[in-house]
Specification:
The protein has 213 residues and is of the alpha/beta class. It has 9 helices and 6 strands. The structure holds 1,6-di-O-phosphono-beta-D-glucopyranose (B16) and magnesium ion. The site of magnesium ion has 8 residues, from loops.
Length: 213
């Protein structure tokens, strides 16, 4: 598509599989407080901020938790999660993602990250993509997480490209809602490909090459 100048990638579940680490860390916390949690509920946490994720998990709790308790649980989850991130290396960037990014870049597209995560820069460092993207918009520069479009609007602003000329790539339904709300084109992987507002359904990350040609 000629009019797509920039591609804004979600991080967890798109560029790398850190979504599985989010799940493992939340599962450990949920088990400790005896709250039922499974992969289906986990899908609702994709793209959603840390505290909003905890609030979704606590929907199943049989008592209420004070803000102080919630802060402690969120911090605990992040501690477990960060330990898992510290084991990551460049091996955790798949060959398919790496070569697709290089192809898109060679074809002249601007490439950015649009992630709700406050751990984005750490993850990019671990997988060897620290200085790769033209812009990084993440959980540290937004006040509202997906499905609000703020994180993508900030990325587009950093790139000086309008939303209508940008493609958002997402694994989260909340991310596709955010893209649609901001006036972006979108490409969905997994559950996100079933969203009613998604522009392109991806079977695989490298399908982006055909879409952008
Ligand atoms: P953190 P994405 C999102 O990242 C995750 O999908 C979501 O599960 C997580 O709660 C959120 O980041 C916040 O992450 O706790 O590391 O700040 O998918 O938007 O890249
Ligand atoms: Mg994601």
């Amino acid at each position: 598509m000629d009019n797509i100048k920039a591609v804004i990638f979600d991080l967890d579940g798109v560029i790398c599989s850190t979504d599985k680490y989010h799940y493992l860390a939340w599962k450990q916390v949920a088990d400790e407080i005896d709250v039922y949690f499974d992969e289906k509920i986990n899908n609702r946490l994709r793209g959603v901020s840390r505290m909003d994720s905890l609030n979704i998990i606590l929907e199943r709790a049989d008592r209420t938790f004070s803000q102080e308790e919630k802060n402690a649980l969120a911090e605990k989850k992040n501690g477990i999660y960060v330990e898992l991130l510290d084991r990551m290396s460049e091996q955790d960037l798949s060959g398919e993602v790496k070569s697709t990014l290089h192809t898109l870049r060679d074809e002249g597209h601007l490439l950015a990250i649009g992630s709700s995560s406050k751990n984005t820069k750490k993850i990019l460092r671990r997988i060897g993509l620290s200085d790769y993207f033209d812009a990084v918009s993440d959980g540290t520069n937004i006040s509202r997480s997906k499905p609000d479009p703020e994180v993508f609007l900030k990325a587009a602003e950093m790139l000086s490209v309008s939303p209508g000329n940008s493609l958002v790539v997402e694994d989260a339904k909340a991310g596709i809602s955010a893209a649609a709300a901001g006036g972006f084109l979108s490409a969905g992987l997994g559950e996100a490909s079933e969203h009613e507002s998604v522009t392109y359904k991806l079977n695989s990350f490298s399908d982006l090459i055909d879409i952008l040609n």
